[in-house]
Specification:
single chain
Length: about 90
C-alpha cells in the first residue's frame, strides 16, 4: 500500500474545456484540460481558433426566397376564386 502507483503511461481524457474571445488577436482561445485516469495528472493545451466571417448567401437561396416568399398571396388569391365560384353556384 505504501509503495504508491506503479510506473505507467498517462491515459488522459478531456476533463474541461474553457473558451474565451481574444479581442487583440480576433480569435477564439480554447484551453483544454486533460486528466489522467489513474493518477489525476493534469495537463493543459491552448488552441487559437480563427473563425472566418460568414459566407455570403448563395444565388440558389435568394432565388428560392423570391420564388416561395409570395406563397401566402397566391393561396389567398385561390381562396377568393373558390369563394366567388361557390357564390355563383348557389
Amino acid at each position: 500500500m505504501a509503495e504508491g502507483l506503479r510506473p505507467h503511461h498517462h491515459c488522459c481524457f478531456v476533463y474541461d474545456i474553457k473558451r474565451h474571445y481574444n479581442h487583440k488577436k480576433h480569435c477564439v482561445i480554447k484551453k483544454v484540460t486533460y486528466k489522467c485516469m489513474m493518477c489525476d495528472y493534469m495537463t493543459h493545451e491552448v488552441y487559437e481558433c480563427y473563425e472566418p466571417p460568414p459566407k455570403p448567401k448563395t444565388k440558389a437561396l435568394e432565388r428560392n426566397k423570391r420564388k416561395y416568399s409570395n406563397r401566402d398571396w397566391y393561396f389567398l388569391f385561390l381562396y377568393q376564386k373558390t369563394e366567388n365560384n361557390i357564390a355563383r353556384h348557389e
